[in-house]
Amino acid sequence: MFKIKVLQATNDKEITVVYTADTHMAHIIYQDADNNNKTIYSQNVYGQTDQTYTISQDTNNQDPKVIVTSVPTGYKLADGQSIPSSISFDANGAKDIVIVLKHDTVDANNPGDVDTHKGDLPKGTDLDAIKQGMAKDVTRTIYETKPGESRKLLTTQTVHFTRTASIDRVTGKVTYGAWTVDGADKWAAYPVDNVEGYQQVVTGGTLAETTVSSDMSNQDVEVTYTSQAAQDITVVARDVTDSSKPVDLDQTQTLKGNVDSPVSGKDLSDAIEAIRKALVAKGYNYQGVEGQIPVKFDNSKHTIVLDFTRANDDVPGGTTIPDKYKGIIADSDVTKTYTRTINLHHNVNGQDVVEHVTQQVTLTRTAHVDLAKLIQLISLLSHTALGVQLITQNTISQTRLVTLRL
């Protein structure tokens, strides 16, 4: 409001009052929903009272009545968010426009996608590391070391895995998808022939077919060999008294050693002697070894057979029974005496005079004692007549009284 002083000499004046719209400032504010709604960027926008301005995302638009804005690089509108198409100003200006954004991502299905979108990623993003993280191989490497030889690579078996990568366009942070197998998911079985005379030892894994998962580590499988314990050499004994029917005597000694190591002469002698002494004490006679004796240990089973026969002791008839056989052999077993008495009647001067004539025959035989079984086995070897005449076995009987009258 202003005043004009009017005097008598003042001429008439026409005053024109012109009103112009005020210019106001508002803001388009972009917030980061992935960072606690922190303000990313605040854009100043200007407008006059009672004016409405179009909002455009066309950065090439030069119309002064158009407000040009755009989502900052690396971001995208959060769910439910949009950029208004216009903004209106009144006497009090206009309210700030708040637009919530979230981080945009580059989704790579293979390492090539990373290169394709490298311009969309933050400066300094390690593209090689991302691509390396999208693929992995789980490998089984098999080596063999034979006795006296150097370590040798036999095979390398690989299962290939891939995964997707989602790369944050703001931070460069990578989120990987789950691993999926690319091709066969197994290491095939890989048998390795054993070295004769040795035990195969497999460490660091297995030679069998194996299903491989992405969380498994690489395996270095080592195939080595240790000297194999040879088959034992067994020393046994048998009774060959009846050679057509050998009988096992349940006496065993065992010799142990490694493949290709020599058989100790002392150990073998001790084993044979232990069996010999045990069986001699039981009434057997050692006859010797049946077959060949191995000179070294190997993978074959060897049995050394010792032959024995039952020992016999002869007790001839007509001799004194040794004390050690008393209770086993009686005198009557080897010596028998048979008597025949003949009564001769004579008539002497009318008197009956009896003359007694006695005849004796003694038979002997030899008793063969089987010392091994302590069983009396008596066989009739011979009959020896010790009297005036031989009485055959069929006529052996009790004392016979014969009366003759003359």
How would you characterize this protein structure?
It is a single chain. By secondary structure, the chain is mainly beta. It folds into 4 domains: 23-103, Ubiquitin-like (UB roll); 108-227, Immunoglobulin-like, CATH 2.60.40.4300; 233-310, Putative peptidoglycan bound protein (lpxtg motif) (Ubiquitin-like (UB roll), Roll), CATH 3.10.20.320; 314-405, Immunoglobulin-like (Sandwich). It is built from 4 helices and 27 strands. The chain has helices at 111-116, 127-132, 265-280, 331-334, and strands at 23-32, 38-48, 52-56, 66-68, 75-77, 86-88, 97-103, 105-108, 135-144, 152-162, 165-168, 174-176, 180-181, 186-187, 198-203, 210-211, 219-227, 233-239, 247-255, 284-290, 302-310, 312-315, 335-348, 351-364, 367-370, 375-378, 400-405. The strands form 8 sheets. A 5-stranded mixed beta sheet has the order 13-10-9-17-15, with no helix packed on it. The model is unreliable at 375-406 (pLDDT under 50).
